[in-house]
Amino acid sequence: xxxxxxxxxxxxxxxxxxxxxxxxxxxxxxxxxxxxxxxxxxxxxxxxxxxxxxxxxxxxxxxxxxxxxxxxxxxxxxxxxxxxxxxxxxxxxxxxxxxxxxxxxxxxxxxxxxxxxxxxxxxxxxxxxxxxxxxxxxxxxxxxxxxxxxxxxxxxxxxxxxxxxxxxxxxxxxxxxxxxxxxxxxxxxxxxxxxxxxxxxxxxxxxxxxxxxxxxxxxxxxxxxxxxxxxxxxxxxxxxxxxxxxxxxxxxxxxxxxxxxxxxxxxxxxxxxxxxxxxxxxxxxxxxxxxxxxxxxxxxxxxxxxxxxxxxxxxxxxxxxxxxxxxxxxxxxxxxxxxxxxxxxxxxxxxxxxxxxxxxxxxxxxxxxxxxxxxxxxxxxxxxxxxxxxxxxxxxxxxxxxxxxxxxxxxxxxxxxxxxxxxxxxxxxxxxxxxxxxxxxxxxxxxxxxxxxxxxxxxxxxxxxxxxxxxxxxxxxxxxxxxxxxxxxxxxxxxxxxxxxxxxxxxxxxxxxxxxxxxxxxxxxxxxxxxxxxxxxxxxxxxxxxxxxxxxxxxxxxxxxxxxxxxxx
Length: 569
What we know:
- The chain is about 30% helix and about 30% strand.
- The chain has about 575 residues and is an alpha+beta fold.
- The chain has five domains: about 80-120 and about 140-180, Ubiquitin fusion degradation protein UFD1, N-terminal domain (Barwin-like endoglucanases), CATH 2.40.40.50; about 190-255, Vcp-like ATPase, Chain A, domain 2, CATH 3.10.330; about 270-390, Jelly Rolls (Sandwich), CATH 2.60.120.380; about 410-480, no CATH class; about 505-565, no CATH class.
- β32 (about 545) and β33 form a beta hairpin.
């Protein structure tokens, strides 16, 4: 009996404990469910609150951008995100789609003068940008507009703007934010070349001015590319006034060009080293490379040259190690002579000397450039420029020479020299055994028999050379050369072509005074008859007021106007 009661009580206690545990677990589950529900409600409320804040922030940002656009555009609001595509053009003017023309026209942007645009990179999600790349991702520059012919959804960008927006590599789909802005006219610019040599250019500020004529804007930290013939110089914009981005249209800008930093000097840029009369400079030139020097002829030296008292001697002493050099000389503004463009040259094997005298019509006062070209191998050399006095004959020597002509002479049948008649037989016997006359037409030089085998003539031009010089002569004078304009000629014709016919040759414009590429023939027949180049034909079409009557006359017709209207010669 007691046993059954005990078992019943234990069973009851066990059931009570289980009920309590189930009740406890139920309470725990309900508490956790309430906590989870509360967390979810808090998360939903936080997300909703964040979205409301983001919406408010986006609205404020849009209003701020609208205000900035209105302020920057002075009442014109234009903002587009377009895909950037490159096109080959000069300057900084971009091409926009036709829809942009309509949008800008509706807001009266064309009535406010030249249009300028701010171009910024759009950072794309998923791009692997680091902190070092953050500055590059935020690149901003400015431009003008060339035309509205780009494809819808894209903006065509010239090389200058492209290189400033994408200094390293462009993304697969480059997106650019294009915003209409108004820019102040610039008053000051500080530029720094990325290498030495730019300041050596004759009238380099005029060359820079010519390059800037193709630009509408300048932005701080941009890199400006300036071309001078085949040479290219890059200048970084360090400082601008009155703001960090300016307009360069119809304004006078004070320009400072500072020396390049040591850390930014380029080793591939040509440099003119000064060379004084009487001093020599040592150097090492590799095959296919140039080393450049410069010297000047002042008024005193020129007077001595004109009076035929002195001559200029340019000399290169090279080590005889199987290598060889060439020598080229030119007068500025051609500051970097080469195989195609020069005024004087020497192609002798080994050491060489070039004599400049007043008889050379291109010689005069001014600065000259000297180029040492590595023709073969690596050559160690010494270059010098001397003012040498001309040797003058003495009267006594002249008298002796004239007295010898009175002796009775007979022409040698072998060497064709006139020999005294009393010794002609002995001379002809000796001459026929030891000497031979070159049979080449027009040569007739008398050579020793052992020297005749090394005396050869060029099959193309007929010039006489030592056999060891023929290989260099053929390579220098008769190997076809390709001009950058596409023409293929031999050396002599190439020098003439690049001096007078090449559209890429540099000339001094008679109207603007700048060094510019001549271009092809002028389109106008009258301009061609005047001898104007393509650039001068266009540049001379600008008008200026006549000094006598104030009438606006084209520059290229100003002389005709003075003669026809004012009877001025």
